[in-house]
């Protein structure tokens, strides 16, 4: 290219640059000279206010589409730092009306310094009377803002509190990582349970209003509005009726109840008592009340169903029986004699009863300790641990809840490592009947029973079955794959199931009588260092094609047969409908369910 | 310097002194004026705090370091950079890739590399100069004429790689600066207008696809610009507040240091990307236009350097630098007055930010370097190399010597 053409092009380039700068100068003339007075007024009076509109949180529904949570409108009182002209007068007055101390109010103002033009929430869910008083004195209270915000309403109070979780104001550290995902200071965020794990879906998207306000803070003109977007709907596998039956069955006692579909791990009911009322958290829980919950010796915040590690008691005999059967040490019709005690060297282990002559199935049915002690030695501690781990005891189930406990399955190595002690033959005997060091969560027990019920699939328990947008579009269907498959011989499986059926038909859980429904299961009475034994029952129904596993654990009450079995019976009645043979069970079908309502008394 | 001793047709007398006498004084003066203006504005926008000199001291330090290094750069014949273009290009890509791996995250983007006591360094700033140099060399090696759009593809590929890396950081604004550099240099380099238009149209067609790649905050900023009323999370708020600040300056402004108390705390990042809002508020229309005038003077001198440059490489490098600075000024001021989306492009010489300031100083040094080694070589560009003849022969490029 010749130099002349190059210089021509440079001239064009310079002209373009000059043109661009001229455009900027014209624009400056426009906003500084033509509209300057307008902007100057805006600047001096600083009259733009930005308020966010809290998005209604998504609903959580049971499998039939019944809401467990809703939102109710409530008043929120905020302060706008830039409009607060006489903080020394306004803050004490606001504090008095809201029943707070001026220091508390000032601390909330100080916590959020980076955007002084945005309102800082002082208190949510303020009673109407206080709002009326504030509105009356509005002229004397510049910088005070009253807004209506949706507040989470847990319709059934403490029902299913542990799985639903609760809300709390977003913390500084959370905010740092979440700000880019649309979270803001002062937002409420799920702190536990479904509310926490699925917060990203439930939260929705806050809207915003930009408006010009006058000196008293009264809106003059809306500059812009972005409506909020409601959070997504989370559907659970929980059946409200079954959940209620489980809650009532457990009553005021401490413990946990789980109902689960053994075919895919969908949780139908999950109870832990004592519970708490998540409504207390929905607007930010007072510190005192939080402390009380945290330090309550009964630990209401602990989800016993997944975080409590308990000795399994005789429920563990399912594992011992599996090991003995698979190792060929015993068959369904092997005969034993139970004199009511077992001698290990000079030590005598006493059974609760003298069963006399009985076969292996009867031994399971009657929960004869002598038989299992007899089998414990040839099976050995390593095989006990191996088969327990095969059922994935001693590891978390992967349920969609937080801080699940893994429990403990002991073996000689473990004892040496943790206790720096030798494994004694007595430890083997204890382990074989679920005592000693064995610890499991009710959820692990539920999965163990599910594996027996479904032929060996280790399902992944899960609460949420699907998530859909507020307008009903399906966003996500959750069906986590099983975490494993165990292969037992048909003979082993047959003997196990025969034993568990015999428990209900003529054994320790013979009190379960539900016309038209066949049930199998295992009781447990777990001795523990805290006093009276824990009562267990873990069962499934119906026996030919199981669709529900129910596990009940009651802390420190006594026999499983006496205390846990009635709870399971009640749950089964609720799930299958009393006296209605073949009533369709709450299958994995999603909300809107296949089950007609008249099956629920 | 060895470079000064070679270059066959150089007039006598030789030596560094001759070049220093040829330094473009208006350009140097304008640069110093802009830098001083910048220091004052940085002070003005940050002095209301517990440490009033914190920012301005850091800015002055970077300015000093930048000028010392820039002065040393003057001593090296700019054609030396041309011969090292390949190495520079690769090193540049590696540095940009390194940001993605070890970079510090801030405001949702990864742009910085920590340099211990020297603070943080933003490679994408320095990369702008490197791209100018390597693209100028590339255009010199393939001098055209470019008869179709396909003949421009090698150059498009040349900038596509670094753009891609910067986009991943993500830094939309800097990626656009590369586009401006590309357009300016190819236009000056002789590409046909319609071919450039085709590439520009292609870029526009890519926009819907890019939309999916953009980070959420970038989309919001773009949307907030396109619909100022649609303002999800404050992106439009910045624009409105910035316009209020600038507009309230009126003709003469509120006076230096007088604007920071009232309005500016509402303007986000008012000492960096939005520093022009401080200028607008405190110095008014007169001060704002005066600053634009300074930029115009600087850019005009830059274009002059391009016209007097002794070779195609120097001329195109000068055009690249001019395009870069012009784009910065236009987009940054445009953003402050609500004409452009918020892209995070700083105002050259003025905005607070060490990497950007030093980059601009070194870009100026490169311009001065090209300008002071000018030589009217007649109608065509001089093609003589900067490095001694012997070296070239050893590299086996003897064909050049026959010219």
Automatic annotation (TrEMBL), chain A:
It is found in: Cell membrane; Membrane. Residues 578-601 are annotated as: Disordered. It is an enzyme of class 3 (hydrolase). Signal peptide: none annotated. Its EC number is 3.4.16.4. Its main location: membrane. Residues 255-572 form the Penicillin-binding protein transpeptidase domain. It is a single-pass membrane protein. Belongs to the transpeptidase family. This is Penicillin-binding protein 2. It comes from Candidatus Segetimicrobium genomatis. The gene is mrdA.
């Amino acid at each position: 290219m010749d130099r002349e053409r190059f210089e021509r092009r440079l001239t064009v380039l310079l002209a373009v640059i000059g043109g661009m700068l001229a455009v900027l100068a014209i624009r400056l003339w426009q906003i500084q000279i033509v509209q300057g007075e307008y902007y100057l007024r805006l600047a001096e009076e600083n009259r733009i206010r930005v308020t966010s509109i809290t998005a209604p949180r998504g609903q959580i529904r049971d499998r039939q589409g019944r809401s467990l949570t809703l939102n109710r409108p409530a008043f929120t009182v905020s302060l706008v730092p830039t409009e607060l002209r006489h903080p020394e007068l306004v803050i004490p007055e606001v504090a008095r009306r809201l029943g707070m101390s001026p220091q508390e109010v000032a601390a909330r103002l100080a916590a959020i310094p980076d955007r002084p033009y945005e309102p800082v929430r002082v208190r949510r869910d303020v009673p109407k009377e206080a709002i009326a008083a504030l509105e009356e004195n509005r002229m004397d209270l510049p910088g005070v803002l009253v807004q209506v915000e949706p507040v989470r309403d847990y319709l059934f109070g403490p029902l299913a509190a542990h799985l639903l979780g609760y809300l709390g104001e977003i913390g500084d550290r959370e905010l740092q990582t979440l700000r880019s995902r649309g979270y803001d200071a002062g937002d409420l965020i799920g702190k536990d349970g479904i509310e926490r794990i699925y917060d990203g879906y439930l939260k929705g998207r806050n809207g915003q209003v930009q408006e010009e306000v006058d000196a008293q803070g009264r809106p003059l003109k809306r500059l812009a509005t972005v409506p909020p977007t409601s959070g997504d709907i989370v559907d659970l596998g929980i059946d409200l009726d079954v959940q209620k039956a489980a809650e009532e069955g457990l009553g005021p006692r401490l413990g946990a109840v789980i109902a689960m579909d053994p075919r895919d791990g969908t949780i139908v009911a999950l109870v832990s008592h004592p519970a708490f009322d998540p409504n207390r958290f929905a607007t930010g829980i007072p510190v005192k009340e939080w402390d009380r919950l945290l330090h309550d010796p009964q630990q209401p915040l602990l989800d016993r169903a997944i975080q409590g590690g308990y000795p399994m008691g005789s429920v563990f005999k399912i594992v011992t029986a599996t090991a003995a059967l698979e190792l060929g040490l015993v068959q369904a019709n092997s005969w034993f004699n139970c004199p009511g005690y077992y001698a290990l060297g000079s030590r005598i282990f006493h059974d609760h009863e003298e069963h006399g002559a009985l076969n292996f199935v009867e031994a399971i049915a009657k929960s004869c300790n002598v038989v299992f002690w007899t089998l414990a030695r040839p099976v050995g501690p390593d095989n006990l641990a191996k088969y327990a781990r095969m059922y994935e005891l001693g590891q978390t189930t992967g349920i969609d809840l937080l801080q699940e406990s893994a429990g403990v399955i002991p073996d000689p190595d473990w004892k040496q490592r943790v206790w720096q002690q030798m494994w004694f033959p007595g430890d083997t005997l204890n382990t074989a009947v679920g005592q000693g060091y064995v610890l499991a969560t009710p959820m692990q027990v539920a999965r163990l029973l599910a594996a027996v019920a479904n032929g060996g699939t280790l399902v992944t328990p899960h609460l949420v079955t699907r998530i859909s947008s507020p307008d009903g579009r399906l966003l996500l269907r959750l069906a986590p794959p099983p975490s494993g498959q165990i292969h037992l011989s048909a003979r082993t499986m047959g003997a196990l199931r025969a034993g568990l059926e015999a428990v209900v038909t003529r054994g320790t859980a013979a009190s379960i009588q539900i016309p038209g429904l066949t049930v199998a299961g295992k009781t447990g009475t777990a001795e523990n260092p805290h006093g009276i034994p824990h009562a267990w029952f873990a069962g499934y129904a119906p026996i030919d094609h199981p669709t529900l596993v129910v596990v009940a654990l009651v802390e420190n009450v006594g026999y499983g047969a006496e205390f846990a079995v009635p709870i399971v019976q009640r749950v089964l009645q609720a799930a299958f409908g009393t006296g209605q043979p073949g009533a369709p069970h709450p299958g994995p079908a999603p909300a809107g369910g296949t089950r007609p309502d008249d099956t629920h008394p | 310097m060895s470079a000064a001793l070679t270059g066959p047709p150089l007039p006598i007398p030789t030596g560094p002194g001759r070049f220093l006498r040829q330094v473009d004084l208006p350009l140097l003066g304008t640069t110093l004026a802009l830098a001083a203006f910048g220091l004052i504005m940085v002070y003005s926008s940050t002095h209301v705090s517990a440490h009033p000199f914190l920012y301005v001291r850091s800015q002055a330090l970077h300015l000093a370091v930048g000028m010392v290094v820039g002065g040393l750069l003057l001593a090296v014949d700019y054609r030396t950079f041309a011969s090292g273009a390949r190495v520079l290009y690769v090193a540049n890509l590696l540095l940009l890739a390194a940001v993605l791996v070890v970079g510090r995250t801030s405001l949702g983007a990864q742009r910085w590399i920590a340099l211990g006591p020297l603070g943080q360094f933003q490679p994408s700033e320095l990369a702008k100069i490197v791209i100018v140099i390597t693209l100028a060399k590339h255009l010199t090696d393939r001098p055209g004429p470019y008869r179709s759009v396909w003949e421009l593809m090698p150059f498009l590929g040349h900038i596509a790689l670094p753009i891609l890396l910067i986009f991943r950081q993500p830094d939309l604004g800097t990626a656009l600066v590369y586009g401006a550099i590309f357009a300016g240099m190819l236009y000056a380099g002789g590409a046909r207008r319609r071919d450039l238009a085709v590439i520009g149209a292609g870029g526009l067609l890519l926009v819907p696809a890019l939309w999916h790649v953009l980070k959420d905050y970038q989309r919001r900023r773009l949307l907030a610009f396109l619909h100022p009323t649609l303002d999800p999370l404050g992106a439009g708020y910045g624009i409105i507040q910035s316009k209020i600040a600038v507009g309230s300056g009126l003709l003469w402004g509120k006076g230096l240091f007088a604007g920071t108390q009232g309005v500016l705390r509402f303007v986000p990042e008012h000492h960096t990307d939005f520093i022009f809002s401080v200028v607008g508020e405190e110095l008014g229309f007169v001060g704002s236009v005066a600053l634009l005038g300074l930029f115009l003077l600087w850019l005009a001198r830059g274009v002059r350097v391009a016209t007097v440059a002794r070779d195609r490489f120097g001329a195109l490098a000068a055009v690249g630098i001019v395009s870069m600075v012009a784009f910065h000024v236009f987009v940054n001021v445009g953003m402050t007055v609500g004409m452009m989306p918020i892209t995070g492009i700083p105002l050259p010489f003025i905005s607070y930010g060490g990497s950007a300031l030093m980059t601009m100083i070194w870009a100026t040094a490169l311009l001065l370097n090209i300008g002071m080694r000018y030589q009217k070589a007649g109608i065509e560009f001089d093609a003589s190399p900067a490095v001694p003849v012997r070296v070239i022969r050893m590299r086996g490029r003897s064909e050049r010597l026959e010219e």
